Automatic annotation (TrEMBL):
Keyword Signal: yes
HAMAP family attached to this UniProt entry: Glutaminase
Catalytic activity: L-glutamine + H2O = L-glutamate + NH4(+)
Signal peptide residues on this chain, from the entry's feature table: 1-22
Keywords: Acetylation, Hydrolase, Signal
Protein name: Glutaminase
Native source species: Vibrio zhanjiangensis
Residues reported to bind substrate: 89, 140, 184, 191, 215, 267, 285
Stored InterPro entries: Beta-lactam/transpept-like (IPR012338), Glutaminase (IPR015868)
């Protein structure tokens, strides 16, 4: 019966663009607040699209979608929630989950690391400073390293495993943004340099080219704010997918993923973000963003203009607004 209600309410939502409400959390208020955040920030004109990947510069900077999926699978969304951007670094969370599933949390801590770098996400100096350690799974070095330690030993198999895992979080087959992929592959010298440096320290599980190629494909997968919120909702619900009802990740692993997001999810803005909201989040340079309120909900946003750290400006403002208006900071009593 409940399932039937969810199917109809989701259908109704997609047809009418009207919000569906959300659970024990006083859904009307949640949706009204998400809508207020959307209206408050949709004309905010600050930040710039990433320009070091040429195809990202061409994305309409006005694109702005907000989606919320609660831990019991209810949905509320506003704006361009059907528009897609490339997932970029938000993907790193899900491939980390895959590595953890394969090798466990100790392997992640020892091989990739869980420490913030205090440096930009594509820093080479950060690797040198740590004698070849990638530091954490969310800087490029750590994400490339994560890919390289997955079980498959060649690029096509690596990519297949990564994509299937992302699809299982999304509950559907995601598409690849071929323009972004081509654009990034054509100009991937820095990531290749990072991978080669890691390899020189003996810190890569495959060849640098295989790891970087699979990693770049992973970053070019298209997602909407809806997809991001659905993917994040698995983490908000202890690894159990609230919509497909599959156990995607062992519940014991979820706190490790969320803690790693707290420490480094929005790069050098992680401290300020956590100070303001108290929740784990992850950004990508395509403008994608997820925030997880454990046990309650996931918020997915897309909006391409970025701050100086590489995080979506509107997404951070909108999510912070929702969290503070609704007192969702887990540290607030
Ligand atoms: N694909 C991008 C890169 O490798 C991802 C960076 C990001 O989203 N922060 O630079």
């Amino acid at each position: 019966m409940l399932r039937l209600f969810l199917i109809f309410s989701t259908l109704f939502l997609s047809l009418s663009k009207m919000p569906v409400f959300a659970g024990q959390l006083d859904g009307d208020r949640l949706c009204a607040t998400a809508q207020a955040a959307y209206l408050k920030y949709r004309n905010l004109d600050s930040g710039e699209n990433a320009n070091y990947i040429k195809a990202l510069q061409a994305v309409d900077p006005k694109t702005f979608g907000i989606s919320i999926v609660t831990a019991d699978g209810r949905i509320c969304e506003f704006g361009d929630y059907n528009a897609a951007v490339s997932i970029q670094s938000v993907s790193k969370v899900f491939t980390l989950a895959l590595l953890m599933r394969e090798k466990g949390p100790n392997f992640v801590e020892e091989t990739i690391g869980v420490q913030p770098t205090g440096m930009p996400f594509n820093s080479v100096l950060a690797i040198e400073n740590q004698q070849g350690s990638p530091s954490n799974p969310y800087v490029n070095a750590g994400a490339i390293s994560t890919v390289s330690w997955l079980t498959p030993q060649n690029e096509p198999e690596l990519w297949k495993a990564i994509k299937e895992n992302m699809d299982s979080f999304a509950g559907k087959k995601l598409a690849v943004n071929t323009d972004v992929l081509q654009s990034e592959m054509e100009d991937n010298k820095r990531n290749l340099g990072i991978a080669t440096l890691l390899d020189s320290y003996g810190k890569l599980g495959t060849t640098p080219l295989d790891a970087v190629t699979a990693y770049t494909k992973q970053c070019s997968v298209n997602v909407t704010s809806h997809d991001l919120a659905v993917m994040g909702s698995v983490l908000a619900n202890d690894g159990l997918h609230p919509i497909t009802h599959k156990q995607i990740l062992k519940s014991d692993y979820v706190p490790h993923i969320l803690s790693s997001m707290v420490m480094s999810g929005v790069y050098d803005n992680s401290g300020s973000w956590f100070y303001e909201t108290g929740v784990p989040a992850k950004s990508g340079v395509g403008g994608g963003f997820i925030a997880i309120i454990p046990g309650k909900m996931s918020i997915g946003v897309i909006s391409p203009p970025l701050d100086q750290f590489g995080n979506s400006v509107r997404a951070q403002r909108a999510v912070s607004y929702i969290i503070n208006q609704l007192n969702l900071n887990p540290y607030a009593n």
